[in-house]
């Protein structure tokens, strides 16, 4: 990633917003159980349970903060670039065997999407900042590989 705020696709935004809502609901539940049980002093098992819930609350707070910041950055980044590959771009690449695929450069929040290549994957990192016609080199479990960036945007017919 470039260090500048990165755009986010509409699908990733929805997924992050849903995760944020779910985390806030879970946080309310956990915080409620902490308040209820803190009124009565208990044995060591109760104290251990309180510590576990306090730790869970801290993890939830950190994830809520991370998602909130990511959404804020995405809002200031604007739409995905169309002249160079960035997070949120749809790209068409051609592999050495002639196979052409249309992929989206996205984030983990979109992991169920079969056309997703995450920006921190080897192919995703290789594509970031590239322009149509560029050949990218990246590592795979089977060794080094290459692909040609055919286009940025909707699929082209070739």
Automatic annotation (TrEMBL):
Region called Disordered, residue ranges: 32-56
Organism: Streptomyces rubradiris
Protein name, entry field: Transcription elongation factor GreA/GreB C-terminal domain-containing protein
Every Transcription elongation factor GreA/GreB C-terminal domain range: 81-151
């Amino acid at each position: 990633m470039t260090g500048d705020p990165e755009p986010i696709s509409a699908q990733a935004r929805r997924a992050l917003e849903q995760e944020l809502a779910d985390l806030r609901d879970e946080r309310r539940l956990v915080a409620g159980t902490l308040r209820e049980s803190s009124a009565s002093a208990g044995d060591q098992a109760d104290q251990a349970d309180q510590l576990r819930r306090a730790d869970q609350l801290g993890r939830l707070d950190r994830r809520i903060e991370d998602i909130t910041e990511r959404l804020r950055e995405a809002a200031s980044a604007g739409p995905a670039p169309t002249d160079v590959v960035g997070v949120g771009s749809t790209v068409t690449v051609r592999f050495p065997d002639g196979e052409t695929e249309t992929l989206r450069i996205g984030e983990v929040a979109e992991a169920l999407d079969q056309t997703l290549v995450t920006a921190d994957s080897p192919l995703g990192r290789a594509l970031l900042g590239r322009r149509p016609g560029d050949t990218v080199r990246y590592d795979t479990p089977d060794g080094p590989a290459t692909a040609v960036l055919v286009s940025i945007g909707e699929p082209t017919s070739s």
